[in-house]
Structures are given as C-alpha cells and as structure tokens.
C-alpha cells in the first residue's frame, strides 16, 4: 500500500513538472544569395535537455523545365440547363454555411488562446539587399520595411511579444544581392499546449457527433417521406 502511494505521488509530481515546464523553440534562418540554412532547436529545463534539427531547404534549378497545364472547356448553349432552387434548398444552404462559420469561429478561439500563451523572447531580422540600380533598390528597401513591419504587427497581435524586435535593412546600390538572417525564440508551457490539444480533441469529437446526429436526422426524414 505504501509503495502504491509513493508511486502515485511520484506520477502526480512528474505530471505536474511536465505541465509547468517551459518549452523554448529557437529558429535560425539564413539566406545568402542561393544558399539557405534553417535550424530549429528545442530546449527544456534551461537547456539541460535539447534537440537540434537542421532542415534542408529544397532549391529548384533555374534551368529545369516548368509544367504548364491547360484546360479547355467547350460549352454549347444547347447543353445549358435551367435549375430551380426552392426556398427549402436556400434555407439548407444558409444553415450549413452558418454551422461552418460557427465551427471556424470556435476553432479560431481555441487557437487564439494558445497563441496568446506563446511568448516571443527574441526577434532579430537583418537584411542586406540590392537590385543593381539605386532607384529600384530604394523602392525595394521601402517595400521590405513595410513587409517586415506588417509581419511584426501580426506577431504582436496573435502572440505575446515580450521584447523589442531588432530589425535592420542595409541597401547595396551597386550590385544585385540579397542576404537575410532571422533569429527568433519562442517559449510556452507544455501544459498550455496539452490543454489546447485536449480542447481540439473535444471540439472534433463534438463536431463528429453533431454531424452523425444530423445525418441520422436526415435519414429519418427521408424514410418518413418515402
């Protein structure tokens, strides 16, 4: 009995530690002309346990042929059909659209709550760009600043941005070149991810059950009519 109690307490303690443990994700992306390198590292317990993965990025050969697919459709006016849509069908379409929007909204709430628990602890993004012409380079730099600002704005809206982003763009007016380096560090508690996963499982099970009930109700209506 004592050993059973000790085992149970150890299991509860282990679960509690895992739930409160923070998972740190480090992303390092580099692009130098035609060379790309992406590294993702996972850490827990201040780096005591970590896993690092280098992900190879596929580069498409510039000389490789592309595939073009054409689709021709010949429609004859004699084949046109007129379809009448009843009020019942319109009501059914509206009901299905409303149910789909409800599902998307509920799923969006779950994902938003999880993303708000994710903290951005580091965000550094530096770029070196040039297109070979001073005027065009200036336009490219302005567009890139706008793109970076938009991305940071989205991150701060959906995630918990705890640091000031370090952004820089260096123009090169004499040559065509693009180099960029991105360093980002995310951190969240494993318990929050587990809770979100359980909510998603519950959500999908509820949707499957609702779809099954709707299908059974439709079958019963068809049988009653026939």
Oligomer: single chain
Radius of gyration, whole Å: 27 Å
Quick one: how many beta strands? 7
Percentage of residues in DSSP E strands: 25-35%
Describe what is shown at a glance.
With 226 residues, the chain is α/β, with parallel strands linked by helices. It has helices at residues 2-20, 87-116, 134-158, 190-225, and strands at 22-32, 35-44, 49-55, 119-131, 160-161, 166-171, 176-189.
Describe this structure in words.
This protein has four helices and seven strands; from the N terminus they run αβββαβαβββα. The protein has 226 residues and is an alpha/beta fold. It has one domain. Helix 2 packs antiparallel against helix 4. About 5% of the residues have low confidence.
Which features does this protein show?
alpha/beta; single chain; 4 helices; flat; 7 strands; seven-stranded mixed β-sheet; 226 residues
Q: Could you outline the blueprint of secondary structure elements for this entry?
A:
Elements: H1 2-20, E1 22-32, E2 35-44, E3 49-55, H2 87-116, E4 119-131, H3 134-158, E5 160-161, E6 166-171, E7 176-189, H4 190-225
Parallel strand pairs: 4-5, 4-6
Antiparallel strand pairs: 1-2, 1-7, 2-3, 4-7
Helix pairs in contact: 2-4
